[in-house]
């Protein structure tokens, strides 16, 4: 396979990546938001996009099924980054990974008292690392979405989730009490592909880097 395959997910990541791709002269022939196709050809016959779940992007790149991909730091942290070269923070899809609790729950006090907290999250690895570093005792409960619901129905005391506008927390009477990390999307490249296809990959990396540098605040 001599062409380049780029893995990305629909929604915010695709929307915010489209201008970068365009700057690199890559325009998909179908719109991933309306097309059911999972392989999108582009105006450049040697470049194709594959549309995958956000959390699957690192896996496709790690195994070389995609040469490069775009994934959030949240997803990369959970994956571990094995076999992935991460040359560039694209500074898109920015948000924060936070600990949140119901309004009125005294998180600081519970932590001070050494309480054992039940925490619901999609991000087990990140949450485990965070609470271990803080010396907080937690039982982690894995969920796949709608984490904000868990404290409302007694499944958990707290959640670890992404916060962007804060609207979802507010609508569910939760408050963010701790920031775990700032999140943005990164470019990831398969390390073997980078060596074998450097002539094709490097120009794309260079244009992405230049575009990011020119558009960053
Ligand atoms: C994310 C996140 C929060 C929400 C935060 O969910 O998990 O629920 O967005 O955004 P806000 O602060 O602007 O309200 P998303 O809608 O991506 O769905 P998910 O549950 O599938 O991750």
From TrEMBL:
Spans traversing the lipid bilayer: none
Domain called ATP phosphoribosyltransferase catalytic: residue spans: 53-206
Protease as UniProt keyword: no
Record keywords, A-Z: Amino-acid biosynthesis, ATP-binding, Cytoplasm, Glycosyltransferase, Histidine biosynthesis, Nucleotide-binding, Transferase
Pathway assigned to this chain's UniProt record: Amino-acid biosynthesis; L-histidine biosynthesis; L-histidine from 5-phospho-alpha-D-ribose 1-diphosphate: step 1/9
Enzyme class: transferase
Main location: cytoplasm
One GO BP: L-histidine biosynthetic process
Annotated localization: Cytoplasm
Annotated GO CC locations: cytoplasm
Record bears the keyword ATP-binding: yes
Pfam families: HisG (PF01634)
InterPro entries: ATP_PRibTrfase_cat, ATP_PRibTrfase_CS, ATP_PRibTrfase_HisG, ATP_PRibTrfase_HisG_short
EC number: 2.4.2.17
Entry's Gene Ontology molecular function annotations: ATP binding; ATP phosphoribosyltransferase activity
NCBIfam families, alphabetized: hisG (TIGR00070)
Domain topic, free-text comment: Lacks the C-terminal regulatory region which is replaced by HisZ.
PANTHER family, per database record: ATP PHOSPHORIBOSYLTRANSFERASE, ATP PHOSPHORIBOSYLTRANSFERASE ATP-PRTASE
Protein family per UniProt: Belongs to the ATP phosphoribosyltransferase family. Short subfamily.
Function: Catalyzes the condensation of ATP and 5-phosphoribose 1-diphosphate to form N'-(5'-phosphoribosyl)-ATP (PR-ATP). Has a crucial role in the pathway because the rate of histidine biosynthesis seems to be controlled primarily by regulation of HisG enzymatic activity.
Known partners and oligomeric status: Heteromultimer composed of HisG and HisZ subunits.
Protein name from the UniProt record: ATP phosphoribosyltransferase
Organism from which the protein derives: Sulfuricella denitrificans (strain DSM 22764 / NBRC 105220 / skB26)
């Amino acid at each position: 396979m001599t062409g380049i395959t780029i893995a990305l997910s629909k929604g915010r990541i695709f929307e915010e990546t489209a201008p970068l791709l365009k700057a690199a002269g890559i325009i998909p022939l179908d719109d991933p938001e309306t097309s059911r196709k999972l392989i999108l050809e582009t105006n450049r016959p040697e470049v194709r996009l594959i549309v995958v779940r956000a959390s699957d992007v690192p896996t496709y790149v790690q195994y070389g099924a995609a040469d490069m991909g775009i994934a959030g730091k949240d997803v990369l942290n959970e994956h571990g980054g094995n076999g992935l070269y991460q040359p560039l923070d694209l500074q898109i899809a920015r948000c924060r990974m936070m600990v949140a609790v119901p309004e009125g729950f005294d998180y600081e006090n519970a932590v001070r008292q050494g309480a054992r907290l039940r925490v619901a999250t999609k991000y087990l690895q990140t949450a485990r690392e965070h609470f271990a570093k803080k010396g907080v005792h937690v039982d982690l409960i894995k969920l796949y979405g709608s984490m904000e619901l868990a404290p409302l129905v007694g499944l958990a005391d707290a959640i670890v989730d992404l916060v962007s506008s804060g609207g979802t927390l507010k609508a569910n009477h939760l408050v963010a009490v701790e920031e775990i990390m700032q999140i943005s999307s990164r470019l990831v490249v398969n390390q073997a592909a980078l060596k074998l296809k450097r002539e094709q990959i490097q120009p794309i990396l260079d244009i992405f880097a230049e575009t990011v540098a020119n558009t960053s605040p």
